[in-house]
Amino acid sequence: MAYDFNVNEVFEMAIQIEANGANFYRKAAGLQQDPDNKAFLEKLAHMEDKHKTTFEAMRKEISDAEKKQTVFDPANELSMYLKAMADSHGGEGDPDIAASFTGKEPIEEIITTAIGLEKESILFYLGLKDLVPPKYGHDKLDHIIREEKLHIAQLNGFLKKTKP
User: What is the model's pTM?
Assistant: First the structure.
C-alpha cells in the first residue's frame, strides 16, 4: 500500500533533521580539545540552526491544500512517526553517528562524515519526492534539496580551508 506524504510533513522532517545536524556539530564541538576546531564546529551548528529557521519559514508559506492530511490519524501519532523517520534516515545529523564521537576524530574526518550524511539526506528527499503528489506540494521539495546541496558546497569549502 502506497502512502502519500504532503510537503508539510516533509518540512516537519526537514526541520527535525536540521535540529539533528546542529546537535551533531555541538556534540563534536563539545569533545574538541583544540579551541579553533571547537569554534569551527560551533559555527557549523549555528549554520544548521539557520537552515532550520529557513525550513520553518518555508513551511509557513505552504498552502492549506499542501497541508491536507493524507492518512487517517485518530491517535495523532503521525508526528512521532515523522520524527522517527527524520532520526533514522541515515543522513544529516544522524544521532547514532553523533553519539559515536569520542573526541579523537580529526576535524577533517568530522567534516567528511558530515558531507556524506548531507548526500544521504539528498537521496532521502529525492525518494520522498516520489511520495508527494503535485497537489500536496511536490515542487517544494526542490527547495529543500537545493538547501541541502548548499550545505554540501559550504562543507566542501570548510574542508578545503582545513587542509594546508
Answer: 0.85
